[in-house]
Design brief:
alpha/beta, four-stranded parallel β-sheet, 17% strand, 287 residues
Length: 287
């Protein structure tokens, strides 16, 4: 029975870039304060903490002085940049370029909608780091929509510009957009802002899930991306199981299975963790 790791799984470009930037500073012997987890994967955070990473909450940023600060790929609101400037902090900005472009587009849309009495809508997860940064660009004037039931928050008579958090499920975004269009009498502009790497990964992952059984999905417990991709995978293949590390793999999942067994990871899952899961499965199969 073969055990195969999905070749398209693992860190997305933005996360790889942020971690490489962080490790370059840590390797120089610097202590670096990251505002929030640099990636939503507890095992990777543990590895980076051992190298000198210090994780703080956004509310703690104002208490730092003469320190090295890193903004992660998810992005930050303008207020965080203000604190860095006021406190004389050394900033390494690792915000994903895709997120930076989205922040700019939302600011521009807010200017347009303000002039015509329109609305900026963001399809995203409340409290998610990226969403906090996006809403901060327009001082909270946007309307956050998490599901179809919240579309009633939209003024049906006013123009709308709709954006999505970069890691949302494309199919869910399409449904939200259609519901808004169906109940709004004014113009609705839908911006395609989901990361293309995320969108294409969901499609390729589906093909991988169809050709492997069971499928072990490796993700972080706090990762929004993990939840989205795991749900897609489980819809395609009911024998899909979620784990955060190799210790959560269960031997009964492989009873009477001819394989091949598949391993899939979220965009926040490091390759080294998927390889550990593979090694554990191979041992279980041999036993």
């Amino acid at each position: 029975m073969n055990v195969e790791i999905d070749p398209h799984s693992g860190f997305c470009f933005g996360v790889r870039r942020a971690i490489a930037t962080l490790e370059a500073r840590l390797d120089c012997g610097e202590d670096v304060y990251c505002v929030g987890d640099i990636v939503h994967n507890g095992r990777e955070i543990d590895r980076l903490r051992a190298k000198g990473l210090r994780v703080i909450e956004a509310r703690d940023l104002g208490s730092l002085h003469d320190a090295n600060v890193l903004f992660r790929a998810h992005g930050e609101p303008p207020s965080s940049y203000d604190i860095v400037s006021q406190n004389g902090l050394s900033l390494t900005d690792a915000t994903c370029p895709v997120v930076l472009r989205l922040q700019t587009r939302i600011r521009e849309a807010d200017d347009r909608m303000t002039k015509v009495g329109g609305q900026v809508l963001i399809f995203g997860k409340k409290g998610h780091a990226e969403v906090i940064g996006l809403m901060g660009q327009i001082k909270g004037r946007g309307i956050l929509v998490e599901n179809e039931g919240q579309v009633e928050l939209v003024d049906a008579s006013a123009p709308v510009e709709l954006f999505a958090q970069t890691t949302k499920n494309p199919a869910d975004y399409d449904r939200i957009a259609q519901v808004i269009k169906s109940r709004t009498t004014a113009e609705v502009t839908v911006h395609q802002t989901i990361c293309q790497q995320m969108a294409s990964r969901a499609e390729r992952m589906g093909d991988f899930a169809k050709s492997h059984s069971p499928v072990i999905f490796v993700g972080g417990a706090k990762s929004s991306n993990s939840k989205v991709l795991f749900d897609i995978c489980r819809q395609i293949n009911p024998k899909c199981y979620f784990v955060t590390d190799e210790d959560e793999v269960r031997p009964e999942w492989f009873a009477d299975v001819e394989g091949p067994v598949g391993i899939i990871g979220a965009t926040s899952t490091p390759l080294w963790l998927m390889e550990r899961v593979k090694e554990r499965i191979e041992v279980m199969i041999k036993e």
